[in-house]
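Quick sanity check, Histidine--tRNA ligase:
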Amino acid sequence: MTQGVRGTRDFYPDDMRLRNWLFDNFINASLLHGFEEYDAPILEREELYTRKQGEEITQQLYNFQDKGDRKVALRPEMTPSLARMVMARAGGLPMPIKWFSIPQCWRYERTQRGRGREHYQWNVDIWGTTEISADAELISVIVTFFEGVGLTSEDIVIRISSRKVLEEVLGSLDIEGDAFAQTCIIVDKMDKLSSEVIGEQLSKLGHTSEVITTIQSVLGIKDMRGLKKSLKAESLAVSELNSLFDEIDSYGISEWVEFDASIVRGLAYYTGSVFEAHDRKGKFRAICGGGRYDKLISTLGGKDLPATGFGFGDMVIMELLAEKDLVPRLVSGIDDIVISLNPDLRNVAVRVAASLRDSDRTVDLVLEDKKMKWAFKHAERIGAKRLVLIAPNEWSRKKIKVKDLETGEESEISLDDI
Ligand code: 4JM
């Protein structure tokens, strides 16, 4: 009976303090850039996620039929819900939209490996503009978050490319549309699977060995000079990426980013810029990822609107922060512990606690008869600032004893001055 659902986590108060600290940093970075929070139901109609391509995210859908035989799914990602919300108000929303959310997202893997089935994923999106400045703004949001939690550009690199790089190369070989999207999904797994398996999957898609070699050589490009040499002079990929890196330079955050053609992302809907943040040592999976998805709405049966955004999970970042010793040691945030040292004075303690709370101090009122020794231990454990004692001796003179636990200073005050 103590076991929860497989792959789910409980958040005890110690965990919840940390989670809230992390979310506060997500929220701060978002609000500083003028984004507004939104939310959507965790449960969606399954068809919102039925896409043709063999994406991991749709293969691992946590879906089931409800009591009315409706096919539903716990959302594996937020973007389709966001697209649904934007579509439902198309025309009624002033553009561009800059929204963020921290949804819990779910997966159900067929291959059992004791892996998590839920996580929280900070989502930040801009809808309604094709401007590259929107993509640069997202990079700035991410950097602001990293700085907020104490990470530097020596710890982190944000690798950036564009789907248009591979699209231009494969387009000249008449590989377009669905075949292109599927190629991206396979290529995204390059750092997880062997080059043989990747080669096999690409040839199963119908690619010749020459095409596969071309793909591999393009994805090996790690700087803009090399890219410029490999693509046509009038390449849109090159000019958009140049603009993006220029904009990022204007923010003064160039040391956080680099071009890397191997970044394509594993979601079918990306159409332009794509990016991932990694720890520079390469110990962890991608910390976050995103990009431009200007054609998502038409795949859902609506009229397209340009959009760009990213998702940022709560797990890899906490592993990285632990490794860097950047996980804060948080305490409860209690100002005062109020305790009566005599059962007859409990009513006084209640009045004192109420009065302190009226003046906006957070108060932990001791609800049982406890000794001084217990109160000190308790105060230490929860990191309270003051101990407020209602003791018979002092109360006989209508005084309350206050011990400042930071300075050790003791004082006596009257009820009116509390
Ligand atoms: C998880 C949930 C949803 C997705 C990936 C992972 N798409 S739980 C770690």
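Posting the structure with no commentary besides this: The radius of gyration is 28 Å.
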